[in-house]
Design goal:
mainly alpha; single chain; 0% strand; 5 helices
């Protein structure tokens, strides 16, 4: 829809609008946890403010100039997409890691590191990603 209606050309969101939309997502999650008393895992699954925040953030980031090869970014995003279910299962569902307090930070760190490793291995083998 963004491409079809050329929203990214007609409207370029400012950093303030991006920040406001992200804060709205955080506020809705906070509201779900504190006011509606939803469990922590269920309170951030489906948020209405994501309908606004995701397109705004996408359009803002799409228009940023990057000084790198698009092939590296494409390989990195593919690696993240392919490896994240395995890491989610191991970190969040495994009995080995449930004692950790910061399992979200562990997941994010492991995802970045393993995705970078896959990108570098892909440069050598060319058939992984």
């Amino acid at each position: 829809l963004i491409k079809k209606y050329e929203i990214d050309v007609k409207r370029k969101p400012s950093f303030g609008l991006v920040l406001l939309s992200v804060l709205a997502v955080v506020a809705e999650a906070f509201f779900n946890i504190k006011v509606l008393k939803l469990p922590l895992k269920d309170s951030v699954d489906l948020l209405f403010t994501l309908l606004l925040a995701c397109p705004v953030l996408f359009i803002y980031c799409k228009n940023l100039p990057f000084k790198t090869e698009s092939k590296i970014l494409a390989s990195f995003s593919t690696a993240m997409y392919l490896i994240h279910p395995l890491l989610m299962f191991y970190i969040f569902k495994s009995k080995n890691v449930t004692i950790l307090k910061y399992e979200d930070l562990l997941f994010f760190s492991a995802l970045i590191i393993s995705s970078l490793l896959l990108v570098f291995i892909n440069k050598k083998l060319k058939y992984i990603l």
